[in-house]
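Hey,

Quick one before I head out. I ran the complex with 2-acetamido-2-deoxy-beta-D-glucopyranose overnight. Inputs first:
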Amino acid sequence: MRLMYCFVVFCVFGISASKYIQFQKDYEYWYKYNSNSTIHDLGNFRTVAEISFTTINVTEEVQEILLKVNSFFVVSEAHKEQGAGSAHLDFTNWFSFEIKLSGEILSVFHDTDEHHDVLIAKKGFASLFSSKLQNSNSEVASEWAYQTTEHGNEGHHNASYAVIKTATGIQFKKIRHSTPIPNAKGVHQKVLHFDHDLGTIKRVVVEEEFTSPQIAPDFDSEKGMRKVKAVNDFSTMENPTIKATNKGELQFWKKEKIKEKSYRPKDDIVIDSIHIGNYQRKEHNAQKLDKLKGTIKSNLICIRTEPEKGLYEHITIAITEMVVYL
Ligand SMILES: *[C@@H]1O[C@H](CO)[C@@H](O)[C@H](O)[C@H]1NC(C)=O
Ligand SMILES: *[C@@H]1O[C@H](CO)[C@@H](O)[C@H](O)[C@H]1NC(C)=O
Ligand SMILES: *[C@@H]1O[C@H](CO)[C@@H](O)[C@H](O)[C@H]1NC(C)=O
């Protein structure tokens, strides 16, 4: 009898659905994002963006959320002028995603012809919320912990969560167990702050460290590089490693009543996953590389004399992927 009772109680708490990511209908939630990234040998980069989330369709467990990017800048500390960002890229196309109240992202809807860099940035912003936020089995617990297996934009991975109740809400700290790139070393941690008054996540802090593998079976650091002997230290290394750190923060800013409802366009929209996919291997064609060069050239004057293709590509990957790892 007692066993039965325990079982029932456990089940009841066990299945009580968590509701941590929830945007009230008819409101647009604005957030500011800023991050500081350091890429070894290249310098410091600051990313600053203003983004908003609006629920456009809601069922019992899942909401479809429209993401808008109002501004997006990447600034190199060494060359203060604002570089790649909203001046070069068009962020106005449709992007929405389906997310469970517990943080799992199910699918993404975007324009068929969306620019690859824009898509990566938008997936990165959406995935800041990507998580598996679980309740405690006990209502009175002030701390709890659990393990998960996840399939986010950063690929299949295991993670641990440590959760504590705070004065204003609940803090979820997620640590992933493996790095997204085989043989790479790294630390990837994300802290999501749920706020009782706001009713959703108010702040997300991401911290990452990344060292690319020196030698890895499918990591060819020379790939696509010019067959010209380069002049300075950077390229005299046989297998350059990329060391990078990133600290990013998404902070709630304001909530506004919407003036007009948004509807997902019927045509020219693809259903996609939050997964970034084969970004590294996908586009080795000249046109793509030219575009990449154009986008980051102004920031990366220091490497202009360097081998062109491989390096540019790696750098862009490093910057964009750091935003989207967790
Ligand atoms: C809202 O979501 C439900 C469930 O996914 C779907 O059946 C319905 O068509 C959606 N409504 C709109 C307006 O997109
Ligand atoms: C996750 O953990 C399980 C059990 O420890 C293990 O079998 C699995 O390979 C891990 N998955 C990943 C992607 O690391
Ligand atoms: C990045 O650096 C700026 C300037 O030092 C600072 O104001 C900001 O809080 C930093 N952002 C993060 C996420 O650490």
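The CA atoms of residues 34 and 48 lie 4 Å apart.

Talk tomorrow,
K.
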